[in-house]
């Protein structure tokens, strides 16, 4: 299992394990935004993970959540429609804070 220590590790993992080929292609040609770390009921269990928003150059977008796989070492990813801003973790670590932490903190506060 590769440990995710920074944004580059995370994005590399998503690119290699994207839930759809279109997402991997969009990561190479479009825009990628790390929304940061979130906690909540993901994959049917209470878990923590990261959300990455991938936007293709044609304007299609996917919210990809990457969570820790508790049944075997590693991670898994799937897409979600709505960002659970109330579950945003944030923090000083850029991997947890995301690319625009001030915006995300405001969105978290507005969601509660």
Task: Give keywords.
112 residues; alpha+beta; globular
Largest beta sheet: strand ordering: 1-2-3-4
H/E element order = HHEEEEHH
Note the overall shape: globular
**Which segments are poorly predicted (pLDDT under 50) over 5 or more consecutive residues?**
none
Structural class: alpha+beta
Distance between the terminal alpha carbons, to the nearest Å?
Answer: 36 Å
Tell me roughly what share of residues is in helical segments: 25-40%
Number of DSSP helical runs:
4
Give a verbal description of the structure.
- The chain is of the alpha+beta class.
- It is 31% helix and 33% strand.
- The protein has a four-stranded antiparallel β-sheet.
- The model has no long low-confidence stretch (mean pLDDT 91).
Task: Provide a concise account of the structure shown.
The chain is of the alpha+beta class and 112 residues long. The chain has four helices and four strands; from the N terminus they run ααββββαα.
């Amino acid at each position: 299992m590769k440990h995710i220590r920074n944004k580059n590790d995370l994005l590399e993992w998503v690119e290699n394990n994207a839930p759809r080929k279109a997402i991997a292609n969009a990561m190479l040609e479009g825009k990628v935004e790390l929304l940061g770390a979130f906690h909540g009921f993901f994959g049917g269990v209470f878990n923590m993970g990261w959300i990455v928003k991938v936007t293709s150059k044609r304007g299609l977008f996917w919210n990809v959540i990457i969570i820790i796989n508790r049944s075997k070492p590693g991670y898994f990813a799937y897409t979600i429609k709505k960002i659970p801003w109330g579950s945003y973790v944030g923090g000083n670590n850029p991997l947890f804070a995301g690319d625009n932490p001030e915006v995300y903190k405001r969105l978290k506060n507005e969601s509660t």
